[in-house]
């Protein structure tokens, strides 16, 4: 089975099929998702590239797909708006200046760069002169060496910080840092090859997690950090286990089985590859049909399904990071909530970090608000210290300014569910809101109660429509989480879901 699944002939066939699916999705990007009625797509140049990079592994490993050893590659697509010399106008007819940091998009777990095919044209048309979407190392059509954790050496600074911890904490930090290095160093090598001084880095799900890991190591190269439904943000709490234990027996049993397989290193990709081919293909097709109702075109669903299927059926590599970075409950072994608060930037005012969640997202939006709360508290304390400091050289850089956005009619795959509003969220996060037409759909923005009480302008920038709401509004907007809490409440949990301030207050008012 293994030999036939990964024979050279089979792999060559899968690569060809994946390239065909990629080309079809790219054609949709050019022709079907124009952001304006009279938009001229000829002003946008699309290019599929393979960028050679040195392997981040401590010893040479042969790529399981392409066979290269000394030089591996990152595959991706670039979009360039050729109207880069004119200042972008209100109607978005011209692109901004070339001095702007390019947008770099990182996909989620077991996805690929072309998951953003619905977003390319709108992002390029309204704001970004250059966009790069990458197949991360070990996924898609990038090199796929064996994911050998023992060969990955943890970064010295991470190990140094772990010396004062207990043995278990130290080993966890080493393990996580080693797994993250696989992706962080390959991204840094790609950045050097493209000679990019700074990037606006936007990552979805696992790509969001790894974007934070990159910003920790190389903050000088990150203009802004945009986290699209990122995994691994909140810390695990006792009530999380309590809620699981309150579920019916058959659901608890299912969860425990999944956890066992997870800890054994079984990934979604390896499970799919273990099935008969007809069964695995039907499972992917069913996933696309049920999870993505926004895709109405049958041929589009077929091409996206083929893209996901062939991506998953190639030899596994980056997918095996999962159990080293996350626990079986999808909580990070080193949660991002505290790591983001410790991010530093060359800008003494701190880096900007933007969370974007879908209205029906299964990722917990509260992780974004918790991160904002922690950064707000740390910034407030440091500002007091700065006010007492006599020397500017003694003033530490401030923690990030954190913003939380919500995209309507979208779940976890918000780039496919509602591409226009996600585009607006990314553009607003990058400081380009004035480039959007006044009637363009824009996301809502949410702030924690402490920011509301303080009226801190650093966290209340909002957008021109003033769609800013507090935590009570967030609890009602993010319906999937609210419904989950309601179901648990009926089973005995004490859950208080506040009344909807978006119905009680007029549009544009700050909900308290």
Q: Give the uncertain stretches in residue-range form.
A: 85-98, 153-163, 487-512
Number of helices: 20
> Can you write the helix and strand succession as a string?
HHEEEHEHHEHEHHHHHHHEHEHHEHEHHH
CATH architecture of the domain at 33-155 and 167-267 and 316-437: 3-Layer(aba) Sandwich
User: Mean pLDDT, nearest integer?
Assistant: 83
Q: Find the CATH superfamily of the domain at 33-155 and 167-267 and 316-437.
A: Alpha/Beta hydrolase fold, catalytic domain
Terminal-residue CA separation = 60 Å
**Which class do the helix and strand fractions yield?**
alpha/beta
Give a description of the structure.
This protein has a ten-stranded mixed β-sheet with strand order 1-2-4-3-5-6-7-8-9-10, with helices on both faces. Strand 5, helix 6 (206-217) and strand 6 (222-228) form a beta-alpha-beta unit. The protein is an alpha/beta fold and 512 residues long. It has a domain at 33-155 and 167-267 and 316-437: Alpha/Beta hydrolase fold, catalytic domain (Rossmann fold, 3-Layer(aba) Sandwich). The relative contact order is 0.11. It contains 20 helices and ten strands. Helices cover 43% and strands 12% of the residues. The protein has helices at 2-5, 8-31, 120-126, 156-161, 167-193, 206-217, 238-245, 249-263, 268-274, 277-291, 298-313, 322-325, 336-341, 366-388, 414-417, 419-429, 449-454, 471-477, 479-490, 501-504, and strands at residues 44-54, 71-81, 103-106, 130-134, 199-204, 222-228, 352-358, 401-407, 444-446, 468-469.
Highlighted features:
disordered C terminus, globular, AB_hydrolase_1, AB_hydrolase_fold, single chain, Rossmann fold, 512 residues, alpha/beta, 20 helices, 10-stranded mixed sheet, AB hydrolase-1 domain-containing protein
């Amino acid at each position: 089975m293994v030999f036939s699944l990964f024979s050279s002939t089979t792999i060559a066939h899968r690569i060809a099929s994946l390239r065909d699916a990629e080309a079809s999705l790219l054609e949709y990007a050019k022709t079907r998702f124009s952001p304006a009625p009279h938009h001229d797509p000829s002003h946008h140049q699309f290019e599929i590239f393979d960028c050679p990079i040195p392997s981040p592994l401590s010893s040479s490993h042969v790529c399981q797909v392409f066979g290269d050893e000394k030089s591996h590659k990152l595959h991706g697509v670039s979009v360039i708006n050729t109207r880069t010399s004119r200042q972008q106008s209100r109607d978005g007819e011209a692109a901004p200046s070339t001095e702007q940091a390019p947008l770099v998009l990182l996909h989620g777990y077991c996805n690929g760069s072309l998951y953003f095919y619905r977003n390319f044209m709108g992002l390029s048309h309204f704001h970004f002169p250059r966009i790069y979407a990458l197949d991360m190392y070990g996924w898609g059509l990038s090199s796929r060496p064996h994911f050998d954790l023992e060969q990955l050496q943890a970064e010295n600074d991470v190990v140094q910080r772990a010396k004062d911890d207990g043995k278990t904490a130290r080993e966890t930090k080493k393990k996580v840092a080693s797994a993250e290095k696989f992706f962080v160093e390959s991204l840094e090598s790609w950045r050097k090859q493209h000679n990019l001084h700074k990037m606006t880095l936007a990552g979805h799900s696992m790509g969001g997690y790894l974007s934070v890991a990159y910003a920790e190591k190389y903050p000088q190269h990150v203009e802004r950090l945009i986290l699209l439904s990122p995994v691994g943000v909140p810390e695990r709490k006792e009530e999380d286990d309590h809620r699981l234990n309150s579920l019916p027996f058959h659901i608890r049993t299912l969860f425990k089985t999944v956890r066992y397989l997870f800890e054994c290193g079984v990934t979604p990709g390896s499970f799919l590859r273990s099935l008969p081919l007809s069964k695995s293909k039907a499972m992917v097709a069913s996933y696309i049909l049920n999870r993505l109702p926004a895709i109405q075109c049958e041929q589009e669903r077929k091409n996206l399904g083929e893209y996901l299927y062939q991506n998953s059926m190639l030899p596994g590599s980056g997918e095996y990071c999962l159990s080293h970075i996350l626990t079986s409950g999808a909580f990070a072994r080193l949660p991002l909530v505290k790591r983001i608060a410790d991010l530093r930037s060359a800008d003494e005012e701190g880096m900007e970090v933007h969370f974007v969640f879908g209205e029906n997202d299964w990722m917990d939006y509260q992780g974004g608000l918790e991160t904002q709360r922690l950064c707000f508290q740390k910034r407030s304390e440091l500002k007091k210290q700065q006010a007492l400091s006599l020397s500017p050289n003694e003033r530490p850089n401030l923690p990030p300014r954190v913003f939380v956005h919500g995209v309507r009619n979208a779940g976890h795959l918000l780039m496919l569910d509602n591409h226009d509003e996600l585009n607006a969220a990314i553009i607003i996060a990058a400081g380009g809101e004035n480039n959007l037409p006044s009637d363009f759909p824009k996301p809502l923005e949410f702030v924690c109660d402490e920011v509301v009480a303080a009226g801190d302008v650093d966290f209340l920038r909002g957008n021109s429509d003033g769609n800013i709401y507090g935590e009570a509004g967030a609890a009602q907007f993010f319906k999937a989480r609210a419904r989950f809490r309601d179901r648990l409440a009926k089973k005995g949990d004490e859950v208080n879901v506040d009344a909807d301030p978006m119905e009680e207050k007029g549009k544009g008012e700050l909900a308290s």
